[in-house]
Amino acid sequence: MTLSFFDQFMSPTYLGIPLMALALTLPWVLYPTPSARWLNNRFLALQGWFINRFTQQLLLPLSLGGHKWAALLTSLMIFLITINMLGLLPYTFTPTTQLSLNLGLAVPLWLATVLIGMRNQPTHALGHLLPEGTPGPLIPVLIIIETISLFIRPLALGVRLTANLTAGHLLIQLIATAAFVLLPLMPVVAILTSTVLVLLTLLEVAVAMIQAYVFVLLLSLYLQENV
Amino acid sequence: MESLTIHILLEEFMRFDVLSWRAASFFFTASSLHRASWQKTQQMRESYNNMQILSQHLLFRRISRVSASLVALCRRARRGRDKGALCSKNSTLHPSNMLSRLVIVSASGLKSSGPLGAGLVQASRSLHTSSQSLAPVPPLPEKGGKVRHGIFPEEIFQLLYPKTGVTGPYMLGTGLLLYMLSKEIYVINHETFAAASIGAVIIYGVKKFGPSVAAFADKLNEEKVAKAQEVKDLAMASLAQAIEDEKKEQWRAEGRSMLFDAKRNNVAMLLETNYRERLHMVTNEVKRRLDYQVALQNLHIRMEQEHMVNWVEKSVIGSITPQQEKESIAKCITDLKVLAKATQARATA
């Protein structure tokens, strides 16, 4: 069956049953539950080590109130990284290419940080709207600019993830199509294109991991400002 | 028998709705585990060690048999749906008999097989709610199952070896691939290229970083073990040291009597010295007092003597009258004159 380039981003259904829930929850199966044994197999050991190190690194700059977010942020990171990496396999659907999902993750979490800041330390939270050392006449303009930047944050978070992943997937499709079409016509050019494709795949692997990390990191930064 | 079963299995696999087949197999495995697990725990524990290799082989046989019978059931159901319900007189394919047999066969097959069975027992522990589930479960194997070319389990090769030899599975794979390509079940399109590139990246990553990651994971476990071992070693060393110290103390305790003797000697000497000192002091004191008495007596005698001499002198001098004194002086002068004359005569003669 021929695919148009945007079919990969359609929400998957099967016989009319939407499979989005499966696509979001099945990656959970890939991670084994930590067992009650003292010495585990290699996979569990690595998983435990990674989660511990990541949480420790993420929570270093946060004060004690932010430590409540540890489980949420680490699980969000693992979720995003798994979904992004699994999406690089052929014929798979990547939920994070859907803007609805990313905004659905970004807006509530960002809003939570803002509300926490406003509730617990309103003066300090509002103080972030004005950087230190601004000259007098610039203050009104800067406050407006900072407020706009504050409200753009969730949009930026969601759209950044969506755009990066969507663009990457589209590029892979396009360059793969180019290589496929060129193969009977000009094999050498097709080989060059395939080389570009391999490099792009490498880049996409990196982007998948980095974008997930950036999402979580920015959320932790927003939390750090407000907690 | 096996090759026919496998052929049927694969045919149906190709034609069947993949999702519903998978759902059905998952469902009957799960239900059979729950029902049969508590019956089978005892049996499994006894026979586990003996049946390991054989039971892996048996497992695949059973699975293939089970799936073949399931496939036949579904085929019959479909035929029944097409033609109207027709119950065959053949009891082996009768649906009500077969499902229960399926359950028991699959459950025991899965439970008594080697690592797969142990893994299933461990994974389904949350479903075991009766008290029989408190019995110890078979341990998980240390290493994962052996695979060839990274994805194909070694058991498939062992399964096919008796009938098709060494090249059997490869022929099967090639045949499958060519079948899927020629019948356009799998179409080569741009996604193939994308799959090839991501496959190349994954294989490169695994080959390059696999051993180091595995070594790192092993190191994590080694460190854990080393820490516990260190604690144990320290405890043992300190206990051994304590034993040594105790032995030394016991040896020291034997020399106690010598120590006491020496101390006793010391004390005796001190006492002796003290006694002699005091004796010496007493002697000195007594001598001093006696000397004093002697000196006193001497003094008395001397004083008496002097007194007597003085008295005698005084009385003698007092008894000399002036007449006597003049006579004695005149006599002295005459004596002196005589002497002078005598001397003068001696000098001139």
TrEMBL record, chain A:
Q: Which domain of life is it from?
A: Eukaryota
One cellular-component annotation, GO: proton-transporting ATP synthase complex
What are the protein's UniProt keywords? ATP synthesis, CF(0), Hydrogen ion transport, Ion transport, Membrane, Mitochondrion, Mitochondrion inner membrane, Transmembrane, Transmembrane helix, Transport
The protein's matches in InterPro entries, at most eight in alphabetical order, are given as: ATP_synth_F0_asu, ATP_synth_F0_asu_AS, ATP_synth_F0_asu_bact/mt, F0_ATP_A_sf
The UniProt transmembrane annotation reads 12-31, 69-89, 101-118, 138-158, 170-192, 198-223
Keyword Transcription listed? The answer is no
Q: Please give the organism.
A: Perca flavescens (American yellow perch)
Q: Name one GO molecular function term.
A: proton-transporting ATP synthase activity, rotational mechanism
Q: How does it assemble?
A: Component of the ATP synthase complex composed at least of ATP5F1A/subunit alpha, ATP5F1B/subunit beta, ATP5MC1/subunit c (homooctomer), MT-ATP6/subunit a, MT-ATP8/subunit 8, ATP5ME/subunit e, ATP5MF/subunit f, ATP5MG/subunit g, ATP5MK/subunit k, ATP5MJ/subunit j, ATP5F1C/subunit gamma, ATP5F1D/subunit delta, ATP5F1E/subunit epsilon, ATP5PF/subunit F6, ATP5PB/subunit b, ATP5PD/subunit d, ATP5PO/subunit OSCP.
Q: Write the protein's name.
A: ATP synthase subunit a
Q: Where in the cell is it found?
A: Mitochondrion inner membrane
